[in-house]
Amino acid sequence: MGGFFGTISKSACSTDLFYGTDYNSHLGTRRGGMATYDKEAGFTRSIHNLESSYFRTKFEPALDKFVGNAGIGIISDTDAQPIVINSHLGKFAIVTVAKINNIEELEQDLLKANMHFSELSSGKTNQTELVALLITQGKDFVEGIENVYDRVKGSCSMLLLTEDGIIVARDKWGRTPIIIGKKDGAYAATSESSSLPNLDYEIDRFVGPGEILRLRADGIEQMRRPNEQMQVCSFLWVYYPVSCYEGRNVEEVRFQSGYKMGKKDESEVDCVCGIPDSGVGMALGYAEGKGAPYHRAIAKYTPTWPRSFTPANQELRSLVAKMKLIPNRAMLEGKRILFCDDSIVRGTQLRDNVKILYDYGAKEVHMRIACPPLIYGCPFLGFTSSKSPLELITRRIIKELEGDENKNLEKYATTDSPEYQKMVQIIADRFGLSSLKFNTLETLIEAIGLPKCKVCTHCFDGSSCF
């Protein structure tokens, strides 16, 4: 996926830009980049590979070179960014959070229009440069960005650092969020509101789907009104850290989801626990709803282990996920434990976690999952490096049962249908779970607090606005 941060201030912006961008590090593992603009020095840009190191270690030694009062930064799982473009619209730097499904078609159209591509990522067209070229086809920035909205299939949000402020443009369906922060003499735009408080920004507004804003140090100009329709990704509230999206705090949503599930649960357990970090908020709500104590039976150790969300190597991802979770035998031995976790994707981590819990003396292991079963791959956002639906444990089981991983998907996605119940029971049996329950789509939407029509739930039920 990816996350960005941009800021414009009446004073030097490099410190805010550096730390604000770093707070998006959970969204990408491949590339990091920053660009600043100064009236005298012009544009300064730097890009680093993050596959073997952290953003801070790459950029901190050379932070002094980023002069100016405005800048944008990116943590990306796709292309080297930012791109700096000189065009009839003026010179600008651009970062994108995008998944462009028709990139080859757009590439051929632009080549036929006598344009060329200079930035390559792994031998392929850099999609951020492609977006920049689509923008330069407009008579102004708004028309150019609307050209992106009209032609890109998938999703695309962006920040443009120009000689006259920062242009902020959210994906036309609002699939990825942008939050505006404000403090005395400065504005910021970010993918994650968690970037803001420690830099003394207060949330000013949530950018609407398709909305285009221009940030200057002394104010905000709306360049395009937001669209009425929205399809913000529901998985944001399931997995990501302590941010707010559309005015709804992640931890609040997780707590409410867990509380609602706990109120209905009749399982007899001794305590409730959460798999750190994203399972903890749900587990605290679950414990309160069920009236069972919350115990910290697994601790997270991260000083020497990088995060494990999207490393390209599956074997390394599994090893890292295991190494940074430390079970506590004293809290597990002889106990009937109910664990909460955010999701089950491939099932690799679940297998390891359950085995460890039994090895450390748990009498029973019950599992509760914060979202419904993941049945469909996401065509709109680059959440994982999955290349095939068969990487989802649900689809592998469906193939075993139906002989075809694409057969009767709507039945398996329907809560408590015979097909759904059989699939869930197979997952529970396969991992030796005493019981397994997933959150329902209805409960998740109720906890998020937005109308179902404004929330994308494609990965759970296959629904789509296209």
Structure at a glance:
A seven-stranded antiparallel beta sheet has the order 3-2-4-1-12-11-13. The chain is built from 16 helices and 25 strands. α3 crosses α4, α7 runs parallel beside α8 and α7 packs across α15.
Provide structural commentary.
- The strands form seven sheets. The protein has a seven-stranded antiparallel sheet. Strands 5-6-9-10-14-15 form a six-stranded antiparallel sheet.
- With 466 residues, the chain is of the alpha+beta class.
- Helix content is 30%, strand content 27%.
- Helix 7 runs parallel beside helix 8.
- The two termini are 21 Å apart.
- The protein is built from 16 helices and 25 strands.
Question: How would the blueprint of this fold be written?
Answer:
Layout: E1 2-9, H1 14-22, E2 31-38, E3 42-49, H2 55-59, E4 70-76, E5 83-87, E6 90-100, H3 103-112, E7 120-121, E8 124-125, H4 127-135, H5 141-151, E9 154-162, E10 165-169, E11 179-183, E12 186-190, E13 202-206, E14 212-216, E15 219-224, E16 232-233, H6 236-239, E17 244-245, E18 248-249, H7 250-264, E19 271-274, H8 280-290, E20 298-300, H9 314-323, E21 325-327, H10 329-332, E22 336-341, H11 348-359, E23 364-369, H12 393-402, H13 409-412, H14 418-430, E24 435-438, H15 441-448, E25 455-456, H16 458-461
Parallel strand pairs: 16-25, 19-22, 22-23, 23-24
Antiparallel strand pairs: 1-4, 1-12, 2-3, 2-4, 5-6, 6-9, 7-8, 9-10, 10-14, 11-12, 11-13, 14-15, 17-18, 20-21
Helix pairs in contact: 3-4, 7-8, 7-15
